[in-house]
Design the sequence.
């Protein structure tokens, strides 16, 4: 049936606020290895403290993940839709205003070149990255949530826009397809009823079917694995559907990855969301959204980005009500992200 409009609005907010929360909470741990049991306890205590009612602490700053998500949202809102040059200008402006948000080492070259060519050639700089290979980083995926929300009614347009926003900075096939997969995962979550138990195997099978259509177009490229996301999603499927008690985190990191490449982080974020549907022994919380983000961070590696992508998917499923306000109040400009979600909601449902 048709989804209640209040629930949908809450899901829009949940997705952007979940993304912000994962980025803010994950940023302190970015680049570390998979955490030891002792370190997982440190993370648990830190989350507990943040969630305490009287904990006073400076606001935790967001990083490039949220800066770019905000730029994507603002561009869609200001243009009432996607305009590639406008969005490129937003990225560059936001980078030069706050260059110390922890951007990827390669992507800043794109920003310099775009500024120098005065946006006459919006696609050239990204194509030149990494000796013409293009970036395979997760930068195109980490910022895609507003596109999934804005185009949630039109899958074809959503996929096409996820691809085109990626091309501004990332042109490597796996960088682009990672953004598409992340958008599809958010859209799927948005359309599900959070009061019903999530069928995690079906959720994964749907993603495999969708990526099958996306990756089939590229089979002429003569790649070793023409459908690497399908391969990763099948590994994910085994981990989530067939590993009984649940696999060791070492196996999850080994098979799915936890680094800055899209291929080894987007499926991991999806896995975190699915795994957190059920209690996880090392994580003490009743709240599945917090569990999602805390689990994602506990895997180490690209913690802010995997936390943010997992948070965006979980928030789109559960809605804003599942995000603890005590935690959110420690995240920089959460009011702004809620407002952006509301504006996207109005445009998307008009
Ligand atoms: N940059 C970081 N973290 C490191 C330092 C941050 C730290 N907090 C600090 O400031 O001290 N995090 C952010 O970057 C990731 C997103 O990166 P994005 O936007 O994809 O950038 P880029 O530069 O295009 O790619 C990232 C790196 O991946 C490698 N790479 C990409 N394509 C490659 C290719 N074709 N061949 C070889 N290597 C490739 C390069 O090392 C790139 O620098 C997020 O984690 C975000 O949080
Ligand atoms: Mg970051
Ligand atoms: Mg790897
Ligand atoms: Mg990161």
Sequence:
């Amino acid at each position: 049936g048709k989804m209640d409009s209040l629930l949908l609005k809450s899901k829009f907010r949940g997705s952007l606020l979940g993304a912000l929360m994962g980025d803010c909470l994950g940023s302190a741990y970015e680049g570390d290895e998979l955490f030891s049991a002792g370190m997982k306890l440190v993370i648990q205590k830190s989350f507990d403290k943040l969630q305490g009612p009287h904990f006073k602490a400076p606001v935790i700053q967001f990083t490039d993940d949220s800066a770019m998500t905000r730029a994507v949202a603002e561009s869609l809102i200001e243009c009432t839709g996607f305009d590639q040059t406008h969005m490129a200008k937003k990225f560059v402006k936001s980078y030069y205003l706050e260059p110390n948000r922890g951007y990827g080492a390669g992507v800043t070259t794109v920003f310099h070149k775009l500024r120098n060519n005065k946006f006459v050639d919006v696609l050239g700089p990204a194509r030149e990255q990494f000796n013409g290979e293009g970036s395979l980083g997760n930068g195109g995926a980490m910022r895609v949530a507003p596109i999934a929300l804005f185009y949630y009614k039109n899958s074809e347009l959503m996929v096409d826009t996820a691809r085109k926003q990626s091309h501004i900075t990332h042109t490597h096939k796996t960088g682009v397809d990672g953004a598409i997969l992340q958008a599809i995962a958010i859209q799927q979550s948005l359309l599900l009823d959070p009061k019903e138990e999530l069928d995690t195997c079906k959720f994964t099978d749907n993603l495999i079917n969708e990526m099958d259509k996306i990756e089939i177009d590229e089979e002429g490229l003569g790649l070793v694995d023409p459908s690497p996301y399908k391969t990763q999603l099948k590994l994910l499927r085994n981990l989530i559907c067939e590993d009984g008690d649940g696999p060791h985190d070492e196996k999850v990191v080994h098979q799915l990855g936890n680094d800055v490449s899209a291929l080894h982080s987007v499926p991991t974020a999806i896995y975190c969301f699915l795994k957190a549907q059920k209690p996880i022994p090392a994580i003490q919380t009743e709240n599945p959204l917090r569990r999602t983000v805390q689990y994602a961070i506990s895997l180490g590696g690209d913690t802010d980005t995997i936390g943010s992508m997992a948070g965006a998917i979980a928030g789109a499923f559960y809605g804003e009500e599942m995000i603890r306000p005590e935690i959110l109040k420690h995240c920089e400009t959460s009011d702004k992200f809620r407002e952006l979600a509301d504006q996207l909601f109005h445009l998307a449902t008009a």
